[in-house]
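During data preparation, a discrete fold description was generated, and the record follows.
___
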Amino acid sequence: MKHKNTMQFGFLDMEISDLLNSDDDETPQIIKIDRLINWKPILKELLNIYGCYKKDYGGERPYHVLSMFKAIFLGQWYDLSDAKIKTSIKSKIWLFSFL
């Protein structure tokens, strides 16, 4: 029996959509910055540098290189340690949406 994917959205999905699509004073600066930056050329350069890590050597799959790059920015901009970055991303929707 096949599982039917209904693609139903919940309240959290609506909140995230409103946050990302709004352009008012309540929109976090990080979301506004994310909209201004063209990430495609940066991703291309990152893949040129870290493309050798695409081979499967076993173990867990690595995080996406652009997400890790953005996480470094979050740490610098908000003065967060690696552990604090992980905790903050899990607890703040607007930080998660930046990645």
User: Anything to note?
Assistant: Residues 51 and 57 are 14 Å apart (CA to CA). Residues 13-21+28-52+63-98 form one domain. The chain has a mean pLDDT of 76. DSSP finds six helices and no strands in the chain.
